[in-house]
Amino acid sequence: MMDVWSWICELPNSDEWTESDSALMFELASSKSSQEESTRSIQLKAERTAGSNSEALVTFTICLQGFHPFDAPKTLWVSDTCPLSSEKPFLPLVLQLLQEIIARSPTAQNSTCPRSQLQKLKPDPVTWIMDSHSAESFSSFFSLVFITRLFWLCAFDAPAEAGSLCFESVLGPHLETLSCKQAPVLRTFLVTVGVDAELCFMRALGYMLAKWHILREVGVGLQTLAPLASQQAGLSYATEAHGLWVLKGYAPILAMNPTCPINNKVLYP
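Above: the chain's sequence. Below: its structure in token form.
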């Protein structure tokens, strides 16, 4: 299980981390190139940045290593600075990830969730969530948030090989393990942030889940798509536009694993 939050919380404090220290690295995914001996990897790095000794700042970056056509490491994403001396040093990181996920929510014409009118998330509700849940519960919720943001990065800003590695080594394996543990924190988050932010967050999450369902099924052959439609396991329809077939898919509630039946009705997480 990828526990990014625990790694972040165990970073050196402001007294132990000097500006001369090298960046600390958490490997999110890696694979050996079939044609070369080099290793391709997606990394999360934490680095001490400008700031006085009494107010040390740390910046996180998501980097690619070994992917064509980049010989040197390529930075995909840079976080806002986090003050290590603060009572909640990594609150800015959590807020930034959530805000960026909401900002990338898919929207339709005449949407009831106009992203341009959404205000920035306030820190107080997120701070309360961090204080009112166990470290293990919040860690699982943070992993879901982090993986969702990583999905959008690899889908739009990374080479195809990096996106494939992310989907195969990060998205697929960890979505299964995240199915239930983050539920209490996620429910609290959705209640406290307001209906507009909730709608946008769930649209972004639903888009990621739909893409994963489609990718997983298409990967074993297009002939599997017809049975899926009757099982309501994610396929919706395909349309032809400008000479290209566009697959439209969703991740409905019925596509999720059932938890328990009540009065012959199946509940889904």
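The chain has two domains: 4-219, 222-269.
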